[in-house]
Amino acid sequence: MGNTTSNTEQQILASAEKLFLQKGFSATSTTDIARDAGCNQALVHYYFRTKENLFNRIFDAKFDSVMDFIDSSMKDDSDIFGNIRNAVGAYFRYLSENAYTPQFIFNELMQNPARRRHIREAFLTSRRSSQVFARIQAMVEKAAEAGTIREIDPLDLIFDGMSLVVFSFITAPAFVDLLGRDSSSLNNFLEHRKEEIITLLTQGLRPASSDAGSPRHESGTERQL
């Protein structure tokens, strides 16, 4: 009975995710989800109560898996440039395997303030994101103290990296289509974008030549993640 319950719940989640991505949140009903999952609508309400709860469960699982991808890709915390390359590469791999997710999340951010609040809370306050962001903050501060990089708010680095990667996946299909290219060109374009983003982030972090190698000795309160 326990396995049946778990399997039914997972099937509902899988069907909801598929339909949300295909049709959008607003155009998907719990009846649609139940039909796709092969169960009755009452079971959808029994496990999740509302469609919003379904969305939140799916988003939270996706977000935690992104954080896991990024965290596991970073090896040596003293090598910030290597970790940027690894993290960007991991994020590209994740989105390549979940190609419709960026556009779906972007649409929900624009259309629904309530879900925008949930996404913001997951980004800033979830346990997994707090762990990963704290690790990135420590790396950034240590590298800036050593003069390896210019001083930067860690949140700016995180936002720059994530937004550049996500925007590439949102716009690449249309861009390649406008050029009349095929799917192999899309893969090549994304690979090029990955390398370009890594270059932009790493070169943008390097201190001016006059400051290189000079540890900073400044006081003041920095914004916390």
From TrEMBL:
Residues 6-66 form the HTH tetR-type domain. Coiled coil: none annotated. The keyword DNA-binding applies. GO terms for molecular function: DNA binding. Residues 29-48 bind DNA. Keywords: DNA-binding. Residues 214-225 have a biased composition (Basic and acidic residues). Gene3D superfamilies: Tetracycline Repressor, domain 2. This is TetR/AcrR family transcriptional regulator. It comes from Candidatus Coprenecus avistercoris. The lineage of its organism: Bacteria, Pseudomonadati, Bacteroidota, Bacteroidia, Bacteroidales.
